[in-house]
Specification:
globular; four-stranded parallel sheet; single chain; alpha/beta; two-stranded parallel ribbon; 16 helices
Length: 361
């Protein structure tokens, strides 16, 4: 089964700019980072990435897809929405616009994020004559990506500015594949560990980037410079091809299950395996040394008429289950280990990519 995804063209533009060399340090926001990150996730974690046709000749995308097997392109003529600002801004009237006033209240926040780092004074000066609202630009991007998603039967990965906006009521949003949901779970667990350690040690962990999914962090860490970002990203796609295969295995197991009850058993089994891995902090299981009493040793000889199970036997059963869970999700443990060895992300972002993250959410 081929997995397909689309991202807003804001994400494509941000990625292309990110990997091109610069002679100056540019001030960036969490939003701009999240746009690059959404493109990176799409490229690494999906078989096909669907984009507007105007990106067909971009040299960076050609380098990422020399065999023309990854990127699919949608022609403007097949879309109701404008796919370029030069063609104007289009709003899908089937969207729920009841919250437009609330969206417009966040116009400065998201325009500053869109610009990179715009002060409130500069924003008020630029927008005092009433240019188009940032809320409408966000709705335009969301409507366009929804249309491409529906047209090509793809799921979509959104940057921060487009998340939690009421979408097109007529659209049939596709759920995220298994592996993408679990990478999000891994990231939440990892960030939680950072916050816990930081709170206990009074260490702010400023070297780590917040609101940045793990694959972007790996790209920054593993690229010698932005000149090698394309090659590094291609290698990440090869290294983590197992994620795409894992989702195929998961979906096949559900499809091959006969009854509804059997399908639920498959889902429960995978969820239980995942919870075991998270509980073990993504570490390879070890049979822990444990002091046991003479009575526990005696009870290790199973009595069919007994009402319980011995501590020793339970230890082995748990260890076996942990090993099976680790084997199933080994790639997530490897990703976690790579993240755990990263430091100095902010400095690397600045030194390698000439980007200073100054406007954070």
């Amino acid at each position: 089964m081929t997995s397909k995804v689309t991202v807003p063209f804001w994400s494509v533009d941000a990625f292309i700019y990110f990997v091109r060399p610069r002679t100056y340090i540019d001030n960036w926001s969490s939003e701009l980072i999240s746009r690059v990150s959404s493109f990176v996730d799409a490229y690494v974690l999906f078989d096909k990435v669907v984009l507007p046709a105007r990106y067909r000749d971009e040299k960076e995308l050609k380098s990422l897809d020399p065999e023309n097997s990854i990127f699919n392109y949608v022609n403007s003529e097949s879309l109701n929405h404008s796919d370029d600002l030069s063609k104007g801004v289009t709003i899908d009237l089937s969207m729920d616009l009841s919250s437009i006033d609330a969206l417009m209240e966040e116009d400065y926040k998201w325009f500053s994020q869109h610009d990179g780092n715009l002060s409130k004074e500069d924003y008020d000066s630029v927008f005092k004559d009433g240019p188009i609202s940032m809320a409408f630009l966000r709705l335009w991007q969301l409507g366009l990506v929804n249309e491409i998603s529906d047209l090509t039967e793809s799921c979509s990965i959104l940057p921060l500015s487009l998340q939690e906006i009421e979408g097109d009521k007529k659209s049939k949003r596709r759920s995220f594949p298994f592996h993408l949901n679990k990478i999000s779970d891994l990231d939440q667990h990892y960030q939680g560990i950072i916050r816990t350690v930081s709170a206990a040690t009074a260490d702010s962990f400023i070297d780590y980037l917040e609101n940045v999914p793990p694959l972007f962090t790996l790209l920054v860490d593993q690229s010698p410079s932005n000149e090698y970002a394309i090659d590094t990203l291609r290698q990440l796609r090869r290294d983590f091809s197992g994620f795409r295969a894992l989702t195929d295995t998961y979906n096949s197991a559900i499809d091959n299950a006969g009854s509804l009850r059997e399908k639920k058993e498959v889902i429960d089994d995978w969820n239980q395996s995942w919870h075991r891995l998270v509980k073990g902090d993504f570490k390879k299981p070890q049979l822990l040394r444990k002091k046991v009493s003479n009575s526990e040793i005696s009870k290790s000889i199973i009595n069919p008429e007994g009402t319980g199970i011995s501590t020793i036997v339970q230890m082995f059963l748990d260890y076996r289950e942990d090993c099976q869970s680790f084997k199933r999700f080994k790639l997530y443990s490897e990703l976690y280990n790579e993240l755990d060895g990263i430091s100095g992300s902010r400095e690397k972002l600045k030194k390698k990519f000439s980007v200073d993250l100054v406007n954070e959410l």
